[in-house]
Write a sequence for this structure.
């Protein structure tokens, strides 16, 4: 018997699950984590590997065809291998299940073979600058060389590599052309991300580099061609003519893509979030531990999803004070 897919009130089918494995991270990027840090949950509040896999199996049964592991930094989990292998085994339920990873790139060295074995060959690596000194200033850690080496290894091993760069006015906007030139030289896919508001990250409209600005700057330096976007792509992608890779902008603030959203988020403490901008969360972990019906709760959450931006009608009127929800590191990328 076929199972009814996870469709919300606006006809959007939800097939993409992003699972945060932890709120912990070995970097301290200011746009993600408040300067004073975050109060860390006790271990008992996190999903265990078995609980991650149990919830993932339910979502796959409900039509999820893509799962991305995020954090914090997902590779700080000592049981990462168990989780990755368990998710790969879910292909007995969904043979075409796609697995991917978002990471800061500093801890990839020991897991390359594992990722290949699990066919987790799509990796997003965060890198906001191509300058070592600026990397140290942005992340508070001296790991630039490790991240660049990880990207080189991923390309050599034929992984599909996306480089995520959050654009911050006055900090890294002078590197837009350098990132695009890199995407022309090598088969990497640069994704510029508009700075988004979360609790404690000192966001403001004056710090955003909007989509049209990036495109205008790119067009002034390079001959560009439009790349065909998939239906649910968050980035509008382009290629330097003759280039090996692509670049694009994830413009959540100035050119949103809510109409085609197919994403569900599961936080490290087992709460479902149907929108990155929403304050609403629904606990799945507690009822899972009680042996209750999780499918009903998942459908309830998806049904309650707003048309756009978690119910914020006028995104242009947002101010820093409007965001008291979790910091980005506690939500999951």
């Amino acid at each position: 018997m076929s199972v009814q897919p996870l469709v919300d009130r606006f006809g959007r089918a939800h097939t993409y699950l992003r699972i945060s494995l932890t709120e912990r991270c070995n970097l301290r990027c200011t746009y993600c984590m408040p300067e004073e840090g975050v109060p860390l949950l006790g271990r008992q509040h996190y999903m265990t590997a078995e609980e991650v896999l149990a919830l993932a199996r339910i979502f796959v049964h409900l039509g999820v065809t893509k799962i991305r592991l995020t954090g914090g930094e997902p590779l700080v989990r000592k049981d990462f291998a168990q989780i990755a292998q368990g998710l790969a085994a879910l292909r007995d339920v969904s043979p075409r299940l796609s697995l991917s990873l978002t990471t800061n790139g500093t801890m990839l060295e020991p897991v390359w073979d594992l990722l290949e074995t699990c066919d987790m060959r799509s990796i997003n690596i965060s890198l906001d600058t191509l300058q070592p000194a600026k990397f140290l200033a942005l992340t508070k850690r001296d790991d630039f060389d490790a991240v660049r080496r990880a990207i080189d290894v991923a390309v050599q091993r034929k992984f599909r590599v996306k480089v995520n760069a959050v654009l911050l006015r006055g900090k890294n906007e002078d590197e837009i052309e350098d990132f695009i030139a890199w995407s022309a030289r090598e088969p990497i896919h640069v994704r510029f991300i508009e700075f988004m508001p979360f609790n404690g990250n000192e966001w403001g409209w004056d710090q955003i580099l909007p989509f049209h600005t990036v495109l205008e700057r790119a067009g002034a330096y390079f001959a560009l061609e439009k790349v065909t976007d998939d239906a649910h792509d968050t980035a509008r992608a382009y290629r330097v003519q003759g280039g090996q890779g692509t670049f694009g902008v994830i413009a959540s603030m100035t050119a949103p893509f809510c109409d085609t959203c197919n994403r569900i988020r599961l936080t490290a403490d087992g709460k479902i979030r149907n929108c990155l901008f929403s304050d609403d969360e629904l606990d799945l972990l507690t009822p899972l531990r009680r042996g209750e019906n999780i499918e009903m709760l998942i459908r309830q959450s998806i049904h309650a999803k707003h048309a756009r931006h978690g119910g914020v009608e006028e995104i242009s009127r947002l101010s820093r004070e409007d965001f008291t929800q979790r910091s980005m590191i506690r939500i999951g990328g």
User: Anything to note?
Assistant: The chain has ten helices and twelve strands. The chain has a mean pLDDT of 88.
